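Hey, I was hoping to borrow your eyes for a little while. No rush at all, and the record is pasted right below.
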Amino acid sequence: MRKTLEKIKNQTHQPDQVILIDDNSIDETANIAKEFGCEVYAFPQQHENWVTHYNLAKVFNLGFRFLHDDLDYIMIVGADHILPNDYIETMINRMESRPKLVVASGKIDNEWIVSPRGSGRLIKSFFWKKMNKVYPINWGYESYILYKALQLGYEIDVFADVHTQTQRPTAFTYKPIMFFHYGKAMKALGYSNWYGFGRCLVIAKRKGIKSAVQMFKGFKSGGVLKYEKELRDNVRENHRKQVQHFKRFFSYLTNKE
């Protein structure tokens, strides 16, 4: 985390506010954050590992509660995400030149990505206020605001030439059950069958058959709270239009990307 905070401190465009949520850490997380001038708030609930679980949205939402109301952008960064020193400046300049672009991120090196990541994403505040300034407590909460932006006629984007790094690969320690959660998220968001199956194929290559099977089981599971019909219809319509994703899936699976 120290290296992440050092990079934020050295940004050419300094953030007006940096908040850290201490989610039951047992190390020096809080003290290190205070060294860098962060506002530190302790998550009050003891809990099991919520990575990939919808309850993790509660941790984010605690931090969102303390954001100043007059900010132009908010940015979400994970504890091991390393940003280039001009990341914020570059992202804001590009987003300012595109009024309809409301959510964007750079790209983590060696990571396959087609939409803004959860960590490293910048969100325009006027749009964030339309989302009531919180993530929904449901599967797929990070993706929800992306699809909501598209449904409302806004744009999202990934700038593949803005390179970032992580201190360990994304999903490096994920167990197969965590991909079951991802499958539930796809169902909640209304993913079409072909697109959901394509995602499972990608996971089969990246994380193995067991993880892919768990994702598929989650995608076909019951008891999932679905998002509003208008959003789910829009998700499927976007998938129908994005035939190029089939090509990207194929390229990825055959090591051409």
Observations:
- The mean pLDDT is 91.
- The beta strands are 19-22, 39-42, 73-76, 81-82, 101-108, 121-124, 155-166.
- Residues 193-207 form the longest helix (15 residues).
- Residues 2-166 form a domain with the Spore Coat Polysaccharide Biosynthesis Protein SpsA; Chain A fold (CATH 3.90.550.10).
